[in-house]
Amino acid sequence: MIDDAKPASGKPIFLWDKELRGFGIKVEAGGTKSFVLQYRNSEQRKRRLVLGRYGVMTLEEARSEARIKLGEVARGTDPADEKRAIRDGATVGQVCDWYLCEAEAGRILGRKRTPIKASTLAMDRSRIESHVRPLLGRRKVAALRLPDIEAMQNDIAVGKTARPRGEGRGGTTQGGKGVAARSISMLHSIFAHARRAGLIDSNPAVGVRKFPDQKKTRRLSREEIRKLGHAMRDVADFEHPVGLAIIRLLALTGLRLNEAQSVERNWLFDEGYIAFGDTKTGAQIRLIGSPALELLKAQPPLGDEPFIFPSDGGQSHFVAASGVLGRICQRLGWADVTPHTLRHTFGSIAGEFGYSELTIAAMLGHSAGSVTGRYVHLDQAVESAVERVSTEIATLLDGE
């Protein structure tokens, strides 16, 4: 009934539950559907409370929440007044806490109408704790204005929230315009989710002017690839062998760091591909060259662990490859090289060979925006290109 319900002549309609009095769903003129609870408080005033949005909250969850609220009404409290008090007095920190809790529970949907991924949520948590909470955490959302949001962006950009890095890279986190712009985008999204849930009346970040996205274009030259290979051999006696193997895999495949570190044995096929159940752009089959396939198959198993690169204690995959690369880069005097640089390098070598943008996108596992793009991921031309680029990089890493 809910799925089929449509607004009447552009006006909202209500569907009421026969099981629980006062519980229903409101279908807005634009088609949005939200669970509501209608009741009379202790002063016999008629009140209507929005419980949540249909699709984010299930019917069973909404009915259960409605029973809880009706119990509060029976005890003399008014849930609508409580929610209004939270809405009027909610701080930025409290809204961020709500977002993290709801997202972890899978009740907030992202751009593709799927729950927020754990990797995205981890990055959001880091930005909240590093930048948003120190600068705006205690401010009330209702009192925020555009200048406040843009001032936060400027403060992050100039390093007011700078803090020491973890081991391996040295120095401090300096902020910068890219970090500032991404933090603003995240905060805008959090406020939008909170407004949709009825926690705040408006999104104070609407209309903010963000710094332009400055995408990193750093890539290694052929000589730098040789230097990286030489440095990896120099540190082989004291650096973690799993970390070194992951760095080599990144260079040979153009995989993202989290993709490379989390590869499982049953995802690897002798035909030369990895079947990922999930990536940044969804489930994918990623072709790899024979040097990468040999590297993966050569990794010794650790008991019954499913991961090709298990952590030292087992029960998870290795997560410290970035630190290993950071220490190698310090030896080489490279301050601007990250795991993602190796991904750019793989694409750059492919470009030098003259492969098309569509082929390179398929090699790197970029989201396919067209029917042609979705089929090219398994094209023989892509397979040939991956093999050629992987072999070339392997040769450079080995100093030949």
Automatic annotation (TrEMBL):
> Where in the numbering of this chain does the Tyr recombinase domain appear?
215-388
Answer whether the UniProt record assigns the keyword Nucleotide-binding to this protein.
Answer: no
User: SUPFAM superfamilies attached here?
Assistant: DNA breaking-rejoining enzymes (SSF56349)
Is Cell division found in the keyword set? no
- Pfam families to which the protein is assigned, alphabetical: Arm-DNA-bind_3, Phage_integrase
Q: Which UniProt keywords apply?
A: DNA integration, DNA recombination, DNA-binding
For this chain, the family text in UniProt reads:
Belongs to the 'phage' integrase family.
Name of the protein in question: Tyr recombinase domain-containing protein
